[in-house]
Amino acid sequence: MTKVVLSIAKKEFLDNIRNYWILGFSLLFLVITLLGSYFGSILVGWQDLEGTIETIENTVVRFFIPIIGLMLGYASIVGEIERGSMSSLLSLPVTRDEVILGKFLGLGSVICSTILIGFGIAGIVIAANVPSPNYGAYLIFIGTSMLLGLGFLSISMLLSSIFKSRAAAMGGAIFTWVFFSIIWTFLIVGIAFYLMSDGSKPNMDLFYSIQLINPITAHSLIENTNIPHNVVVSYEHATLSLLLWTIVPLLTATWIFRRKEI
Amino acid sequence: MDMIEVYDLTKHYGGFKAVDNVSFNVKEGEIFGFLGPNGAGKTTTIKAILHLVNISSGEIKINGLDVKKNEKEVKRNIGYLPENVAFYDNLTALQNLYFYADIKNASRAECMSLLEEFRLKDSAYRRVGKFSKGMIQRLGMIQAILGEPRLLILDEPTAGLDPRGVVLIRKKIQELNRRGVTIFLSSHILSEVQEICDRVGIINRGVLIAQDTVQNLSKKLDIKPKISIELEKISDQILDAIKKVEGVEGIDVLENTVDVICSSGVKAKVVVAIENAGGKIINLRTREPSLEEVFMKYTEEGVEGA
Hints:
The complex is a heterodimer. Chain A is mainly alpha-helical. Chain A has 11 helices and no strands. Chain B starts with a strand and ends in a 6-residue tail after the last helix.
């Protein structure tokens, strides 16, 4: 079981790491993080790691990490069916569950290495330029960013197992991105206005609880120290949200793929 | 002992019946040809055998085991060349093969020797994305026979190959069969099946028309081969020479082309006779019975021998 899964994971990693997009994203993360730190506070020079996190949360994390996850996963199943390599893969002594798990691990490592290289190198450069850097917060930031990427990978693999063509899965991935990173904001603002429409003060607890549902805003809840945390809105629950987004779509994808016609 | 047993296999795609109540068996150690035109249900049947599609009804066993219930165990003994085989374009030929070898638990050394045997050694370190159709097909064959499976399922194994490639694959199939490998191959070319198979299943529009030995198939068809010979110039002298050849059952002349009806063993004698009479052959084609003629023969006389 494990050997087969690792073989598939390794193959996926090798097949995708040569993708120029992935190299580009790594570089992009590095550059944006460094710029974010250097120009984030132009008056005092290099910004501390914690300050840098808040600056890049709204650029790299919010927009690009979901894109990487979706981009790597949307074709992972339907693309291979469409091209024809899935037939020979499934004629080997593997189960379909092993194929999904192997692909998730392989593509997940691509995401994790992209984040690790991009943010990691930037972190080292920043740490060398500021007094007493807060490594802990930065490591948590890297960890939760990986989890966010894995969540979107999981969603895109679900899309890839549902749709019957690569093009349709791509459409689904684009919609997912637009929904979680753009439409969501309008939706939340709309809800806030509705709650305030009777003249009462908006229930901020409810507002932030809803933000737990979206993996992107859940990630912000972990990183943004200005948001009041309470019984419902907590680091633990935000992390749990990211974990659920990683596990539930993947399990659903497995369930669908077991019945899929190749 | 049967290597493949298919009982009452039916597969619907929506309202379309791709395979309709098909039953057949492939014996251990034989080469079984699955013959039919494109779209007849060959690939669907193969996919059902490998459990790549969910069958609507019926039962399939490989080596006595139910495919659905013993998926991994069954697949350990199978090598499969799909129709339109595809690989991972970003990886080299060798990286692709290593991937298959690892999962099949085959030795990595086998990959290189097979690449050499299939004339792909020089491309071992090239990305598969740059390969031609024929190279992909040969790589597909290597992938299938890696790990020495006991059963080979080949869906149109010679598709997209040049004549040299066709000979290479055919020889390999026969060599593996001599070593005891059971082979199930699909084809839409009658002569291909007649040349290398022991038995044949004939499928048309999802229905199995016949299951027969190739010997019986040829006897039943009894369509005399016809050779068309295009000559530079035709003379009575040449025509007389052809007619005198023993085994020639008739000739037909159209402009510079002579159609000769004869058994295939006589072909060479006809050519010699023409040349002795001073004729110059420009082109020579062998005309064989079409699949339609095969279907006609079998449907006219009912499904016998199935």
